[in-house]
Structure of Release factor glutamine methyltransferase:
Amino acid sequence: MTETKIWRIIDIINWGTEFFKSKGITHNSNGNEARTTIELILCHVLKCRRIDLYIDFERPLSKNELEEIKTLIKRRLKREPLQYILGKTEFMGLEFKLTPDVLIPRPETEILVEKTIETIKKEFAQKNLVKVLDIGTGSGNIAISLAKFLGEKVYIVGIDISEKAIEVANENAKLNKVENVKFLAFDLFSDEFNEKFKNQFDIIVSNPPYISIEEVQTLQDEIKNYEPWIAITDGADGLNFFRRISNIAKNLIFERGFVLVEMAYNQSEKVREIFTKAGFKEIEFFKDYLGIERVAKIKVEKL
């Protein structure tokens, strides 16, 4: 990519697509990931929508714009996730600010949100206000999506051990104009947490750190070298958060309610065993887009 040549938007799209393909750089699981990557980089630099790239495809780029594009391409070549480079991502059709302090939201987590919305609408139709606890809130994507799509029907508390994650979540709440959420820095495993939130919630939802420490090393560079390990793994077998949630769920739920959790591709039977051992009888699983059991829904009833 030389600066002596006049580079138009369409030239950068075509060159960038082939360049990223040749380097094995992907953005997502779609067939056109290389083109998507260069398009999103261009949109970021030019502050425009993707459709605008093709409306004004013959527009020449300035020297400064080319320099910025080259800088972003170099970062992506080092396997830095595109979402961190752009500082944002989309989840449930909403925009979320991202920093390396928070996990990048995944499409499969939208299933967790959708099933939570379904559960609230079905099981709490007669209740004016449903209180939700989001454990390991990260960027706030789950809590904010629930707040946005359910409105005044819900009040959500999002907790995370990371103060920096809470800062990002608060910024995202403002960005998406939701006020029925509150984000707090808390350690799920502390006695203080269990006491503070006793009998407070109808729904517990969580996308916890569920990758085992052994498996972390097998993950792609974008994940293991850039995303926060504290949000990826529990430092053990990947099941500690499920054990903790199963132990405290009855204490946190007000009268009757539900726990919905996301899990890894190979954990459904282990998650079933953990919650069954803790005394829960009604456990349902939902599959993701690849047919993998990805979300568990556990009914909580107090005797």
Q: What stands out?
A: Residues 9-78 form one domain. The CA atoms of residues 124 and 148 lie 17 Å apart. The chain has two domains: 9-78, 89-301.
